[in-house]
Amino acid sequence: RDDDDEWDLPSFDSMFILRSLLSAHAIQSAESRTRHSIQYSETIRWRRLKSMMEDTIDLFQRMVFEGFDIVNDIFENDQTQHDLTKPAHFITIASWVYTKQLFPACQSLVSLLLEEHHGDGIINLKNGLVAKLFGMLTTLLALECTATPSGDLINKNRQVFPTIIDSDEFFSCIRCYGQAQLESGPTLEEDLLLHDRPHCNKFGQAKLAFIRLQTQLHPPNDASMFFPSPLSAEYRWTISFPHVITFLADDDLSNVRLGFDMLKMLVNKTQFIRPVQYGKDFTNSAFQGAHSSELLAQTIHTLLSLVFRISALEATMPNSSLLEFSSLQVMSLTQSLKALYSTNVQVQAIAEVTQKIIYSDQDLIALLPKVLDWLRPVIMDICNKSKNSCQDPDFILLCEVIRIFNPILTDLEEVFNDSTAMPKNIPRFFSMIEAYTALFSSLRAMKIFIHTDNAPNALAECAQLQLKFISEWLTQSLDRIILFKESLKKLIDVWSVETAASPPPPGHHRCLLLHYHLEEAVLELSGEDDDEKTNINN
């Protein structure tokens, strides 16, 4: 026998099917013997039954991954033969074997264990046996998404999707056993879409979420495939939004497009799907994560990275058909997404994004001014209130904004060498000029709020302390800005003396504009010329 015969695809498919059918038969036989033992009061090794099912699922998953890699490699390397098994065909076979043989066999045996009150350790929907049983469905969806051509995501797996829908009764039995329902979704499909399911494949979940969202917007003609959901807007966000970043963060351009499409549907077309707007204490970890500032910050950072990459492509390939979304469109979509959240979540997310840009992802430093500008509406909304009408959350927000600005002020202090008038790092200095300008503009707005003519004694004691902290911080910031202004003036004087031997660097004229904004900020923060400096929008 030739060694290469091991990779003969028809034989390989046959062996995969045979091994899977034998595994299913073993589960069915175990159930039959167990029922016989129950009838005759024989000793039953319940733990062995649980281990047997878990080992069977692990074995099937390993065979699927190995088989898919083999089929995919051979298909990519030799497409001249017409009798080769395509990756999509292999996944169709695997889906049929799992949904028609293995899954029903395991489902029947699990049901028996529940009937006999031996479900402990298997009904945990995060880490139990049923978590692996259901998670394999998302793995098959993910592999099908990989095997099909780009843009064919809307083609539903005819085996997996009906299995998910038809398993709701079995899923309900699991939810009713013990405390499983406390951390579960109301149906199997919705439970599979919860983001904190370690045994679920992320791309399989994302595909399921995309198709569910698309079906809600465009119900199919077959009404039996569409069931309107009575779930709240916040719950729908929980099972939809966390999967957007799975597509957006992928290197495959087709998946990134799917992420944009999904985000556009959520932001622009589904007013019935929205994040929570008020402070709620969620006990469910999936709810906490889906509505958190951390996930919003992660998504915004991913979108900003795409803005950076698309901008580079626009500069080199302005007429490329690959650019289905412009950098301006992506930035606009990012702002629209941010606006869906409550103000405190927005500020917390901006704080996380800002820190990441400054400390670990300086490729995006050119976008930092835009991120800082997102804080101006927050400050302006608070400025438009009198201090007496402000609530504690308003002052807390301003303190959070201060936390965002502090690293930039520190960076401002470290621009120049003490011994010379030159910046320590000229490219870094030039890259931060617009960020400094955005900072000065926001500081001026905060100073206007501090100087509004209201009686601070009318505020609660905590608010008075916060207001005092903000006022003192602005005073300290003024001192730091004045020192920077003096150093900048010296630098401008040096670069104004142009010589052939030491010409100023390209773009040095931007320092003049920065110096102008500095003078405006110093006037506002020092309280000079208050009657003339009241329009903070300029």
Question: Which descriptors apply to this entry?
Answer:
538 residues; mainly alpha; 22 helices; disordered C terminus
Number of strands: 0
Proportion of residues in extended strands: under 5%
Structural classification: mainly alpha
- The gyration radius over C-alpha positions equals 30 Å
Distance between the termini: 83 Å
Order of helices and strands: HHHHHHHHHHHHHHHHHHHHHH
* Number of distinct helices: 22
What sort of overall outline do the alpha carbons produce when their principal axes are compared? elongated
How confident is the prediction overall: mean pLDDT?
84
Q: Note the main sheet.
A: none
Which bin fits the share of residues in helices? 55-70%
Would you identify the regions where 5 or more consecutive residues have pLDDT less than 50? 1-7, 529-538
Structural summary, described in words:
The protein has 538 residues and is mostly helical. Helices cover 65% and strands 0% of the residues. The protein has 22 helices and no strands. The longest helix has 36 residues.
How is the secondary structure organized here?
Blueprint: H1 9-39, H2 46-77, H3 87-115, H4 129-147, H5 160-166, H6 168-175, H7 188-192, H8 202-217, H9 233-238, H10 244-248, H11 253-269, H12 285-290, H13 293-316, H14 327-339, H15 343-359, H16 368-373, H17 376-383, H18 392-413, H19 426-431, H20 433-450, H21 461-496, H22 510-526
Helix pairs in contact: 1-2, 1-3, 2-3, 2-4, 3-4, 4-8, 8-11, 11-14, 13-14, 13-15, 15-18, 17-20, 18-20, 18-21, 20-21, 20-22, 21-22
